[in-house]
Design a protein that fits this description.
There is one protein chain. By secondary structure, this protein is mostly helical. The protein folds into 2 domains: 51 residues, Orthogonal Bundle (Arc Repressor Mutant, subunit A), CATH 1.10.10; 125 residues, Tetracycline Repressor, domain 2 (Orthogonal Bundle), CATH 1.10.357.10. The chain contains 9 helices and no strands. Helix 5 runs parallel beside helix 7. It is elongated, with a radius of gyration of 23 Å. The termini are far apart.
Length: 206
């Protein structure tokens, strides 16, 4: 008679995910983009992502970490953005590309209107404050790289020596953020592009 097998069964290491994490993250990004950080609930996110709340927490941690990961997906590689600004023919070209890119991104047919980064509105909660700081760092980084490109043009004689790089870069960023508000209000792509052109008319010239 064969003796019973007493070899312990291998331990399970947890159920494998039954969803596409990347696709779920994209849907979370759209939900935050459409409704904003504070007003998007866990129930909204699970419905959009097609996952259960436990699966969301297991895969992404919590709502704050999910939002920050969605922001990274939205904003892309910060080094790539820095390289695009630095490699532009002139600071004017870099600013024009930023404004044009914003006008197009904020009015896509298949995406929510406006800017995802603008959805991290202040509410006074510690959770929102941490999110807002992270988003502000992205905007500050873009402005800093644009200001550096402006300084290069000043050094090369393409811009007047009395140009204020931080103020000029700040103007571009302010217009971009304003475009987001107008896009959410229903402004067309043509309208936003014309606003970008008007903003560039203030660019200092030699």
């Amino acid at each position: 008679m064969k003796s019973p097998d007493t070899t312990p069964a291998p331990r399970k290491t947890g159920r494998p995910r039954s969803f596409d994490r990347d696709a779920a993250l994209e849907q979370a990004m759209f939900a935050f983009w459409r409704h904003g950080y504070e007003t998007t609930s866990i129930a909204d996110l699970t419905a959009a992502m097609g996952v259960t709340a436990p699966s969301l927490y297991t895969a992404f941690g919590d709502k704050q970490r999910l939002f920050l990961e969605a922001v990274q997906r939205y904003a892309g590689d910060p080094q790539a953005m820095a390289d695009r600004i630095a490699s532009a023919a002139t600071a004017y070209d870099a600013a024009r590309d930023l404004l044009t890119g914003a006008a197009i991104a904020y009015t896509g047919d298949a995406t929510p209107k406006g800017c995802l980064l603008a959805s991290a509105t202040a509410s006074g909660s510690p959770d929102s404050a941490a999110v807002q700081r992270a988003v502000a760092d992205i905007r500050t980084g873009i402005a800093r790289h644009l200001a550096a490109r402006i300084e290069r043009d000043m050094a090369g004689g393409a811009l007047p020596q009395d140009t204020d790089p931080a103020a000029l870069a700040g103007l571009v960023m302010a217009v971009i953020q304003g475009m987001s508000v107008l896009a959410r209000d229903g402004a067309s792509r043509a309208t936003l592009l014309s606003i970008g052109t008007a903003a560039l008319a203030a660019w200092p010239m030699r």
